[in-house]
Amino acid sequence: MTTRRMNIWQTAPQLMKGMSGFQQAASAAGLDPVVAELVKIRASQINRCAFCLDMHVAEAREKGERQLRIDLLASWEEAGGLFTERERAALALTEAVTELTDGFVPDEVYARAAAHFGEAEMAALLGQIVAINAWNRFNVAIRETPKSLEASAS
């Protein structure tokens, strides 16, 4: 287990207040909560953020998400009809925005998502993807400890 490098909430409260405000705005933008949780989990898997995975898997379960879908989310493309076309489009966009290895989001990925989400929903979807990526990067950099690991260590 790694040791947390800093308590960023104490060290940079204004920064974290801004991040929280951005997350609240992204969450209030009207994206389907199931899609939002899938996006948060998938980006957190890619970014290897144990803190966010722990949190969002638990939240997805609390909201009634099936364990099988959570278990197979990392391989959603091979999971057949387990995910809707709308969810699959959101997951493809999540991967493209998260990885950015080619420096851009491919037109076909964006168009696929735009075919399933109206413009306001696309903005909300992008907001969720950007927000979770920012949280992932903070938490991975400071080695934030997942809440369930903290609880099991006590």
Key descriptive features of the protein:
single chain
Describe the structure in your own words.
The protein is built from 9 helices and no strands. With 154 residues, the protein is mostly helical. It has helices at 8-11, 13-27, 33-47, 50-62, 67-71, 85-99, 107-114, 119-142, 147-153.
Helix content: 55-70%
> Rounded to an integer, what's the Rg over CA atoms?
16 Å
Q: Uncertain regions: pLDDT < 50 for 5+ in a row?
A: none
How many individual β-strands?
0
Separation, N- and C-terminal Cα atoms: 14 Å
Tell me about the largest β-sheet. none
Order of helices and strands: HHHHHHHHH
**Proportion of β residues?**
under 5%
Mean pLDDT: 93
- Dominant shape: globular
Structural class: mainly alpha
Give me the number of helical elements: 9
Summarize the structure.
The chain is an all-alpha fold. It has nine helices and no strands. The longest helix has 24 residues, at 119-142.
Helix and strand layout, with pairings?
Blueprint: H1 8-11, H2 13-27, H3 33-47, H4 50-62, H5 67-71, H6 85-99, H7 107-114, H8 119-142, H9 147-153
